[in-house]
Amino acid sequence: QVQLVESGGGSVQAGGSLRLSCVASGYIHWMAWFRQAPGAGREGVAVWRSSSITVYDDSVKGRFTASRDNTRNTLDLQMSSLKPEDTAMYYCAASSAGAFPGLAVSAYHYWGQGTQVTVSS
To answer: Are 111 and 50 a contacting pair, CB within 8 Å?
Structure first.
């Protein structure tokens, strides 16, 4: 069983930046960030694949950067040029799948409690 704890959410004006952090209780290879806006389904934001590859949803490409520290079992998400449509609860997730799980919600087995990000216009 892996436990995930997120931190770093908050409120910011459009164009601003926030950094989210997720700490896992142990090493697990596949880690990702998802988000869920009010009234919407949960969607994938970024999944770390290797030291040189991170897969991003098109809506955040060029604005969000995920970084992994395997020595501390962390996955951070640096969010820049934030837009009101980025407002959501952000969740850290981990998967014990044998193959790359991508950004499919169903492929992830462990979830954090979420951290709220609110972007005002």
So the answer is: no
Distance CA 60, CA 73 (A): 23
**E runs forming strands in 10-114:** 10-13, 18-24, 30-36, 42-50, 53-56, 64-69, 74-79, 88-95, 110-111
Residue (of 9, 7, 6, 5) closest to 82 by Cα position: 9
Token digits for 33? 């960030």
Looking at residue 87, the DSSP 8-state letter turns out to be -
* 20: three-class secondary structure by DSSP: strand
Alpha-carbon distance 50 to 68, whole Å?
9
pLDDT at 52: 74
- pLDDT for 52-95, tens place per residue? 788 889 999 999 999 999 999 999 999 999 999 999 999 999 99
From CA 111, how far away is CA 91, in angstroms rounded?
Answer: 7
- Report pLDDT for 83: 97
